[in-house]
Amino acid sequence: MLPVKSISDCKGSTSYDESIFIRPETNIVNSMSETYKANFEVIVDEDGVYCAADKEQMIFTDGKSKQELEKRIKDAVECYFEVPYTKVDISIRYN
To answer: What is the distance between the terminal CA atoms of the chain, rounded to a whole angstrom?
Structure first.
């Protein structure tokens, strides 16, 4: 298993105990002109929590609502790619 770090290392503490995890060795960005993509699949677990995973980039996060999840996805993407989320093509597919 690869080492992970919490998004709290990038942006401060998260809003509750569940953390956002990213694989740190791949989050280096070479130039602002690159195209960045993040494709998340979302499932709802047995407790009603929305869980999102971009398995290609190894970005994982969750939220208690769709609105919270989408905000946390934006935060995770910014931390991972080290660019504003508006520069990343984010796809979210709910299952």
So the answer is: 26
